Amino acid sequence: MTDAKTYKGMDTNFQGLPLTPERIAPHVRGDVQMYWKEHTGSTNDDAKKWAALGAQGPAVCVAEVQLSGKGRLGRGWNSQISQAIEMSLMLRPHVPAQVGAGLGLAAALGVSRAIEKVTGLQAGVKWPNDIIVNRRKICGILIESAVSSGLLDFIVIGIGVNVNQTSFPEELKHVATSVALETGQPMDRAPLAGAIIESVIGSVYDYFDRGYDGIRKEYERRSTVLGRTVDVTTNEGIVTGKCVGFGALGEILVSVVSGTNRYSANDVSVREARDV
Ligand code: BTN
């Protein structure tokens, strides 16, 4: 059993209580294997290792702190010990590999629903899979997968939610927020982590069953960029246009003078254009 005494040096209130399987499991219906580490490099790498060793999904790797947390497009992920939810959900869906491209949208929908349900905060989604509260990022998602014979062998959905941070490093302080900063009070991470696990499994399987149509309505309702003028950063430079929708494989559709461009989440980043 896990109890606070096992984790000397951490706070004894719930903010410092580790986010262990024993504390998350009561908030998750269904059978989900969970692995916990106090510190690790990246929970996505841990989940990929478990998958390679034959773990069957759903499985979740959780850590109190990541020493080399990974973000999208080769970026890093800031990690403050025991303040956030840093976990990776591994699933083995056995669907055609190309379906994986839209997964980020489904995962973002699942996380935003759970954040809203548990905290009462209004959670928007910035394409492809950032969760936004009051114009600041509260959660980032990094999806990795392995393909075998044209099917997804496993997928890893890495989720970083800012929960109890009350400050951020200089470079993030104008763009990041946390549940505590938004609600004005710290919260126990365990019920939120459990709700996210359940909700993401639900939204991802809705997407696998019905494709983008299974999530379109709510994803678009929550979108912070749909109908807005955006700057798309590509390898060739910045393209400015209006976001007019999303494609069946999770692409963003951007209307420019010459027509409608389609960009994949693996290739570009997007932000709302200023001064338009
Ligand atoms: C992004 O917004 O760039 C994605 C950030 C994803 C961070 C999470 S934290 C848990 C998991 N492990 C990682 O190394 N990254 C993801």
How does this structure look, described?
- The relative contact order is 0.15.
- Strands 1-2-3-7-6-5-4 form a 7-stranded mixed β-sheet, sandwiched between helices. Strands 11-10-9-8-12 form a 5-stranded antiparallel β-sheet, with no helix packed on it.
- α3 packs antiparallel against α5.
- The N and C termini lie far apart (57 Å).
- The chain is built from 6 helices and 12 strands.
- It is globular and about 55 Å long.
- By secondary structure, the protein is of the alpha+beta class.
- It is 24% helix and 31% strand.
- Biotin binds at residues 42-44, 66, 69-72, 75, 77, 86-88, 130, 140-142, 158-160.
In what range is the share of β-strand residues?
Answer: 25-35%
Give the helix/strand class.
Answer: alpha+beta
Encode the helix/strand succession as letters. HEHEEHEEEEHHHEEEEE
Let me know the number of strands. Answer: 12
Radius of gyration: 18 Å
Number of helices: 6
Spans of at least 5 consecutive residues with low confidence: 1-12
Strand arrangement, major sheet = 1-2-3-7-6-5-4
Distance between the termini: 57 Å
Main beta-sheet strand count, sense and barrel state: 7 strands, mixed
Work out the helicity level. Answer: 10-25%
Mean pLDDT over the residues: 92
Shape: globular
Name the ligand types: biotin
